[in-house]
């Protein structure tokens, strides 16, 4: 008799991305030349994890007795308000918002899934998505429904988005839509203003079929090329019909992945329902991680509340954003030369290259010392970890992998015809 329950049997010991990263690190340790484009952490051009000195100073400045004390279950009030202001800016949504501290954006996703869809129901997102969405959902007795993300022309498929959402609402009676923009992980795609307004219109129409919540995963918001609050202006008019949620994290925006500081933010117009939502989010905090890293919360709050500290951090972040922009531009130049097929890429940690066989593409690239993550129909490239000087070699290796995949696909097609 197994000591584990059936649901827990056969689970992998590590995330596949971390396994690829481990292979890359082992090869480098043995003296091999490696371009490791697997893990989503921003490295400088010397391969060192990029940090912001002012954030480190803020962490060190927190008094030991305050850092060691329990944080409130939902997080300190100044932190919660600072996050709301950061997410919504001067939008009217800020005046109707509540929030709860979470361990990074992952905790915000978990909290939202537990409170806005029932056990046995599915969240709704694009066909390309961050794979832990499915892990988080499945671990909490939920699942994932998707829609085809792109049209044949490479644009966001609004029609497919609406068709799938309507079908889901007719099937399960409510919907939690999760969209990771700007700088989508894994594709790098960013919705433009027209697309955001189209998405908002779809959500408004769909809300006639049942409760709809939109969760915008803002993990990479500070690394986009557009106004961070563009999406807020697009969805503000539908706030009476659709619950607007945001998953906020300090992991990327403050380069503090290990601090695990995040929040779930919810805009709810009705005061009574708003309090119910706040209570539900806090209850879920208590029933999972209890409370969050108080040192991180206090340090990040001090930065967001102090104009001088915030200005310093903004300047330091700008340096990191500029670093990424140079890599993005280098990738776009090289990828165009090799004729790679990939979504519009304007900024962010990742881009995906389409391929008929991602396993073959990743395997061939790895033979060249380039490590990328295979997915259905594409390989994910974590450009955030790749020095600008290595981008051309990376693109060449991926292009060779795509060509090998095409040859294999053509052979299989020929054998099928025969």
Structure description:
The chain has helices at residues 16-29, 53-61, 64-68, 77-88, 104-116, 132-139, 158-172, 193-206, 230-235, 250-253, 271-286, 294-305, 307-338, 358-367, 391-417, and strands at 35-36, 97-102, 122-126, 143-147, 175-179, 212-217, 243-249, 262-267, 350-354, 370-371, 373-375, 378-382. The model has no long low-confidence stretch (mean pLDDT 96). It starts with 15 loop residues before the first helix and ends with a helix. The chain contains 15 helices and twelve strands. The protein has two domains: 6-52 and 310-417, Alpha-Beta Complex (Aspartate Aminotransferase, domain 1); 72-292, Type I PLP-dependent aspartate aminotransferase-like (Major domain) (Aspartate Aminotransferase, domain 2), CATH 3.40.640.10. By secondary structure, it is α/β, with parallel strands linked by helices. Helix 9 links the parallel strand 6 (212-217) and strand 7. Helix 2 packs across helix 12 (294-305), helix 5 crosses helix 6 and helix 14 (358-367) packs across helix 15. A five-stranded mixed sheet has the order 2-8-7-6-5, with helices on both faces. Strands 9-12-11 form a three-stranded antiparallel sheet. The chain has a two-stranded parallel ribbon with strand order 1-10.
């Amino acid at each position: 008799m197994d000591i584990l329950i059936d649901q827990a049997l056969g689970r992998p010991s590590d995330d596949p991305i971390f396994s690829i990263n481990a292979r890359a690190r082992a090869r480098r340790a043995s003296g091999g030349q490696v371009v490791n484009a697997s893990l989503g952490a921003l490295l400088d051009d010397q391969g060192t994890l990029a940090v912001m000195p002012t954030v480190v100073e803020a962490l060190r400045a927190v008094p030991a007795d305050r850092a060691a004390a329990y944080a409130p279950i939902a997080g300190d009030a100044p932190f919660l308000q600072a996050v709301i202001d950061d997410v919504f800016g001067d939008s009217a949504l800020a005046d109707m918002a509540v929030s709860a501290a979470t361990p990074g954006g992952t905790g915000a996703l978990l909290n939202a899934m537990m409170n806005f869809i029932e056990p046995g129901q599915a969240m709704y997102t694009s066909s390309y998505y961050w794979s832990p969405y499915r892990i988080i959902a499945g671990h909490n007795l939920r699942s994932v429904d998707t829609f085809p993300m792109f049209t044949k022309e490479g644009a966001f498929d609004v029609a497919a988005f609406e068709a799938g959402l309507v079908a889901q609402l007719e099937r399960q009676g409510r919907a939690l839509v999760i969209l990771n923009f700007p700088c989508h992980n894994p594709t790098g795609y960013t919705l433009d203003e027209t697309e955001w307004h189209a998405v908002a219109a779809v959500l408004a129409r769909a809300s006639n079929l049942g409760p709809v919540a939109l969760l915008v995963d803002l993990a990479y918001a500070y690394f986009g090329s557009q106004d961070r609050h563009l999406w807020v202006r697009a969805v503000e008019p539908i706030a009476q019909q659709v619950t607007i949620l945001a998953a906020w994290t300090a992991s990327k925006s403050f380069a503090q992945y290990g601090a695990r500081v995040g929040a779930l933010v919810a805009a709810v117009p009705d005061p009574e329902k708003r309090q119910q939502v706040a209570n539900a989010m806090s209850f879920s905090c208590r029933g999972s991680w209890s409370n969050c890293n108080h040192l991180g919360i206090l340090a990040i709050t001090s930065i967001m509340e102090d104009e001088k500290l915030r200005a310093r951090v903004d300047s330091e972040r700008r340096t990191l954003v500029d670093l990424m922009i140079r890599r993005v531009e280098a990738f776009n130049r090289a990828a165009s030369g090799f004729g790679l097929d990939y979504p519009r890429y304007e900024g962010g940690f990742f881009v995906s290259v389409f391929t008929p066989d991602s396993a073959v593409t990743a395997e061939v690239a790895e033979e060249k010392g380039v490590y990328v993550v295979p997915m259905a129909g594409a390989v994910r490239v974590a450009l955030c970890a790749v020095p600008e000087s290595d981008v051309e070699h990376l693109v060449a290796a991926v292009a060779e992998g795509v060509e090998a995949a095409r040859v294999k696909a053509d052979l299989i097609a020929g054998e099928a015809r025969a």
